[in-house]
Every structure is written in C-alpha cells, then in structure tokens.
Amino acid sequence: MFGHEYTCDRCSQTATYISAGIGYYRLPDGIDIPRSSQPAWCIRCDALRCAERLPELERLQDVLADLESNGLS
C-alpha cells in the first residue's frame, strides 16, 4: 500500500489517498483474476476513496481474443 496527497485545482482542498494495492476476483473454479485500484472522489462521503481501475476497452478486447484462442491455461 502507498499513500499520495492530492490537491483540488479548483478549491485547493487536499486529501490523502491510500491505495488498497492489487486485489483479485476468485472464480468458482479457483482461478484468480487480478484487479487494480485507483483514487476516485466519493460524492456520498465527500472524500477520496479506492475504486476499481478498469482497463481500456481495447485492452479488454485483446485479453478476450487471447483467451478465446489460447484458453485459460
């Protein structure tokens, strides 16, 4: 885990974000799929929170094509 301080470019408010690191989703068959995170602003709690970082669509399509042609192993 790591921490980083962010400053709003509009109001100059600062907030510290602490990364949750890299996690994973575990499928029923035991395969782990990695998951990464990034800071995101939560409107409800008015603070920086950890949010899942989704890859670009092109990257997801490349991974899917690779899995379809080579399988999961």
Summarize the structure.
The protein has 73 residues and is α+β, with helices and mostly antiparallel strands.
Count the beta strands. 5
Largest pleated sheet: 3 strands, antiparallel
Proportion of beta-strand residues? 35-45%
Helical residue percent?
10-25%
Structural class: alpha+beta
Order of helices and strands: EEEEEH
Tally of contiguous helical segments: 1
Quaternary structure state of the chains depicted: single chain
Tally the structural domains: 1
Radius of gyration, whole Å: 17 Å
Q: What is the CA–CA distance across the termini?
A: 29 Å
Question: Low-confidence parts lasting 5 or more residues at pLDDT below 50?
Answer: none
Q: For the residues shown, what is the average pLDDT?
A: 82
Shape: elongated
Strand ordering within the main sheet = 3-4-5
